[in-house]
Amino acid sequence: MTPEIPYKRKAVDPVECIKAGWETVKPQYWLYVGMAFIAYVIGQAVPVILMGPMLCGFYLSLFMSRRREPIEFATLFKGFDYFGASLIAMLLHAIPIAAVIIPSYILFYVSLFVAASQADSQGGVAVFGVFFTFFLVLVVIFVLIIIISVGFTFAFPLIVDRRLNGLDAVKLSFKAGMANFWRLLGMMLLTGIMAAVGMAFCIVGMFLVLPITYAAVAAAYEQVFGLAHPREFAPDLPPPPPVFS
After folding, report:
1. What does the pLDDT look like over 209-223, one tens digit per residue?
2. Which of 62, 85, 123, 162 has the highest CB neighbour count under 10 A?
3. For residue 90, how far is the Cα from the chain centroid?
4. Which residue has the higher pLDDT, 220 or 101?
5. Among 15, 80, 59, 48, which Cα is nearest to 225's?
6. Residues 6+ away with beta carbon under 8 Å from 86
7. Would you tell me how many other CB atoms lie within 10 Å of the CB of residue 29?
8. Are the C-beta atoms of 148 and 93 separated by less than 8 Å?
9. Under a CB-based contact definition with an 8 Å cutoff, are residues 90 and 53 in contact?
């Protein structure tokens, strides 16, 4: 049975998280930029399968930096140590979104085809009605995606820091995410603006901002859960033999 992990409500300070994120990556900023680029490229190759381990490796690196432990580029690939848990979490993230978006688009195109095929004078009104209805549906989908995204904020950090399985990490992430919903949403908006500015210059700008974005999430995680001490998960080894002088 997984032990109960406490979390704080309304603990996230969006601005402080971004500042702390920058302080985390600043000493090795270009290393983190390179890691973000490789993580993105590998993760996008097969998103549902490979993105989870890449995120775990990136958060592992960030948590090690926050503990002032040395990291290297290869640390990113230690995320594959959490492959099973990250795959479950990624599936739980992707399936609900796909279950909402795909039927909505199918229904839209079917309705549009039926409306456009009407030969009477009301055909134009019917087409307008389809577009207006689909716009409302898109608004609902957008809200649902925001809620799901906030709920999943801490899933991968929990897998890495607390060694939770995918399902338990998602469940706890949703509890803590909803308890800090508006503050996390504010942080997402701020980092979203930063990403938009980066994209405005060039797609390269996105990779300049990504390390700070994920580091801000790591800082928010620390505000809500605190970082687990590495010794909590050290292997249960026998004591060393006595030394006789």
Report:
1. 999 999 999 999 999
2. 62
3. 9
4. 220
5. 59
6. 52, 53, 55, 56, 79, 156, 159, 166
7. 14
8. yes
9. no
